[in-house]
From TrEMBL:
Reactions it catalyzes: Transfers a segment of a (1->4)-alpha-D-glucan chain to a primary hydroxy group in a similar glucan chain
Species in which this protein is naturally found: Alteromonas oceani
Gene responsible for this protein: glgB
Phylogenetic placement of the source organism: Bacteria, Pseudomonadati, Pseudomonadota, Gammaproteobacteria, Alteromonadales
Keyword presence, GTP-binding: no
Pathway: Glycan biosynthesis; glycogen biosynthesis
Subunit structure: Monomer.
Name of the molecule in the record: 1,4-alpha-glucan branching enzyme GlgB
Function field: Catalyzes the formation of the alpha-1,6-glucosidic linkages in glycogen by scission of a 1,4-alpha-linked oligosaccharide from growing alpha-1,4-glucan chains and the subsequent attachment of the oligosaccharide to the alpha-1,6 position.
Enzyme class, broadest EC rank: transferase
Family: Belongs to the glycosyl hydrolase 13 family. GlgB subfamily.
Length: 728
């Protein structure tokens, strides 16, 4: 028979047509396939009473026979004899209806994908029979055959051929598989050629090298304890509350003392990292990508398992514990999300069924020259659902508070990093990727519709309009956008010798021309302290003392400037060397007063930023900011004022970007009364010079800087001051 050869060669597309029960009145014909089986007996699944034996058809593992009294409402098991002995199994092919349920309405809502596809735990119920099972469903529309393989069948693709459906999904229910069971898919392309074994694109848990196998995982087991946090987050206005983000690469924040252990686990990080972030006063932790990835050197930006937190640091439950612990300590969690590219690893998505299922087929659209990786086909409905579902998945199942979307510019432009002739214009002849734009809008709409307390943040380096404006207003729909212009200009300025800063003054003021065009986050991220760029303190000019003073002055200027804040790990201690993903932050530096002082400043900045409403409530409103003097390029002094939402508080920020102290420096202020110095980056506790600077001063009716009043202050060298005025 033709189907016998297909089974033996793992080339059967429709096993439901030939395997399992075929009902005909009171007599049921049962056909079972088990390579290596010597005898097969059918027993009642509830009573275990024998119902009859199946006869070997050809000696290769195919058995069949007529079983009386077996109905479609009942279930049976098979007592199978092999060289290894006797085992009792439930025939997967009797659960056809349950398998087909995987594709019922799967395309109606994005989240249906991760609720129905992949390896889902289900309960089988029939006439007193009740059993746990795993329902497998994988999208491989151009495959000629797909089998689920794993520890349960000796990784033999002949044993569990899957059924192809009209939607391009292959489905099968396998009873009795335990959580943690390893599995993959054996796929043959349209011409019958076997491909490398593929991990589950919807796999919730993945094993590390060398297997890269998917593992069965139950999302319902973990018990969350963050209800108070979620309730609080739902009531907050994200734009009017403080957001100081500590960006972390989990593999190199701190290394274990145990030489046998390469990384801190999620649970160890939940203890050590959360305690540190709490003490330092950050409001959020942002994690470089945690979706499973094969190559450490990619830092996670070449993900393969988008639905699995990397098992380098523990299980999915362990990652949930980490997020839960953050929330119980009033810390939000943002993760990097990478829809811009994916690598060609054999077990991954590239040419998944031998064809371009997930990526653009034309390399002018489907291959990224910068990263030597594939690009998703943003116009294909199944790919669009896959990506949007993944965004929602992290918010639903792992309670993360935000998604920072990597490399958005590379998605928006068809000619990104390409020369003429290396890209294909859109239907209008332009360079915008209309499909990617549409996808990003849909993703943002779905995120905010289902999780209004969450946020999406775009890393977008061009002047593409309205990135952080709602879709209904013609925007891309992101909640926030990284201010790459501010980052580039301000770092370029601060790296200059103070003697030359007078010629670059506008680099520090230009950001205010566009500061409220988007909802900006000010980032000093991992990208600025790697690949030969040096550390943040290493960018600073001068001798050791001047470098540290420049670092402190710049940090406080950043915290005073409108926009939410983000700093990469190590910045806060003045790490001397640039970031190395294979080594820990150099915590030994805290043995020295200089680095203790820098760390203390970042801690105080975070706590002040949260405590002073004027520094965060109107980050995205022009009415929250006024220049006092933006033209003092000769002295390289910047001064501005921040306003609270109700107008009762003002914070004056004054930065002296030269090593020359300026005594009795007059600054215009807007109100009469007493002014309080709350931060001086030159204070001796920060390893500053400790130059005398009065803690209080009273405004005089002396007009200055176009203001009706003024105060006299002493500006220390290379220092930023925060001076607060509170209305009674």
């Amino acid at each position: 028979m033709q189907f016998e050869g297909q089974l033996a060669q793992a080339q059967c597309q429709h096993p439901f047509a030939v395997l399992g029960p075929q009902f005909n009145g009171t007599n049921t014909f049962v056909q079972y396939w088990h390579p290596g089986a010597q005898a097969v007996e059918v027993v009642d699944a509830v009573s275990a009473e024998p119902l009859g034996s199946l006869t070997s058809v050809n000696g290769d593992g195919l058995f069949n026979g007529v079983i009386e009294g077996l109905s479609s409402a009942s279930a049976y098991q098979l007592k199978v004899t092999t060289d290894d002995g006797e085992s009792l199994v439930a025939d997967p092919y009797q659960f056809q209806a349950e398998a087909y349920h995987a594709v019922h309405f799967i395309d109606h809502e994005p989240q249906n994908l991760y609720r129905q596809a992949g390896a889902q735990r289900i309960t089988l119920e029939r006439d007193g029979f009740n059993a746990e099972a795993i329902r497998f469903a994988v999208f491989a529309p151009n495959a000629s055959a797909v089998s689920v393989i794993g520890d349960f069948n000796g990784w033999d693709g002949r044993c569990h051929p899957m059924q192809k459906t009209d939607m391009g999904y292959w489905v099968l229910v396998v009873p009795g598989l335990a959580e943690g069971t390893r599995y993959k898919y054996q796929i043959k392309d349209a011409n019958g050629h076997q491909l490398p074994h593929k991990a589950d694109p919807l796999g919730f848990y993945a094993e590390q090298y060398p297997s890269h196998a998917s593992l069965i995982y139950d999302h319902e087991r973990y018990e969350w304890h963050d209800a108070k946090w979620l309730e609080k987050a739902a009531k907050q206005n994200k734009y009017q509350t403080p957001m100081s983000v500590y960006e972390v690469h989990l593999g190199s924040w701190k290394r274990p003392g145990n030489p046998e252990q390469r990384y801190l686990s999620y649970r160890e990080l939940a203890e050590e990292l959360v305690a540190y972030v709490t003490e330092m006063g950050y409001t959020h932790i942002e994690l470089l990508p945690v979706s499973e990835f094969p190559f450490d050197g990619s830092w996670g930006y070449q993900p393969v398992g988008l639905f699995a937190p990397t098992s380098r640091f523990g299980s999915p439950d362990d990652f949930k514990f980490f997020v839960d612990t953050c929330h119980q300590n009033d810390i939000g969690v943002i993760i990097d999300w990478v829809p811009a590219h994916f690598p060609e690893d054999g077990h991954g998505l590239a040419r998944f069924d031998g064809s371009h299922v997930y990526e653009y087929a034309d390399p002018r659209r489907g291959w990224h020259p910068d990263w030597n990786s594939c690009i998703y086909d943003f116009g294909k409905d199944t790919v669009r659902q896959f990506l949007v579902a993944n965004a929602l998945y992290w918010l639903e199942h792992f309670h993360v508070d935000g998604l920072r979307v990597d490399a958005v510019a590379s998605m928006l432009y068809l000619d990104y990093s390409r020369e003429d002739g290396e890209w294909i214009p859109n239907v209008h002849g332009g360079n915008e990727n209309l499909e990617a734009i549409s996808l990003l809008k849909w993703m943002n709409e779905e995120v905010y519709r289902h999780f209004p307390h969450a946020m999406t943040i775009a890393e977008e380096s061009t002047s593409f309009p309205k990135v952080s404006r709602p879709v209904f207003d013609g925007g891309l729909g992101f909640g926030f956008k990284w201010n790459m212009g501010w980052m580039h200009d301000s770092l370029h300025y601060i790296s200059k010798d103070p003697a030359y800063r007078t010629y670059h003054h506008s680099e520090m003021t230009f950001s205010m021309v566009y500061a409220f065009d988007e909802n900006f986050v000010l980032p000093i991220s991992h990208d600025e302290v790697v690949h030969g760029k040096g550390s943040l303190i290493g960018k600073m000019p001068g001798d050791e003392w001047q470098q540290a003073a420049n670092h402190r002055c710049y940090a406080a200027f950043m915290y005073g400037h409108p926009g939410k804040k983000l700093n990469f790990m190590g910045n806060e201690i003045g790490q001397s060397s640039e970031w190395n993903h294979d080594a820990s932050v150099d915590w030994r530096l805290l043995d020295f007063d200089k680095h203790q002082g820098i760390q203390r400043l970042y801690r105080d900045l975070n706590h002040l930023y949260k405590a002073l409403p004027a520094l965060h409530q109107r980050d995205h409103e022009p009415a929250g900011f006024d220049w006092i003097d933006l033209h003092n390029h000769e002295q390289s002094v910047f001064s501005f004022v921040r306003h609270s939402l109700n107008g009762t508080q003002q914070v004056y920020v004054i930065s002296n970007m030269t090593p020359a102290p300026r005594e009795n420096f007059r600054i215009g202020v807007q109100q009469p009364g007493e002014y309080q110095l709350v931060l001086n980056t030159d204070d001796s506790v920060y390893w500053g010079s400790g130059a005398a600077t009065p803690k209080q001063c009273v405004a005089e009716p002396v007009p200055w800087n176009h203001q009706p009043y003024s105060i006299n202050v002493n500006l220390p060298p290379l220092a930023t001051l925060f001076i607060v005025f509170n209305k009674e």
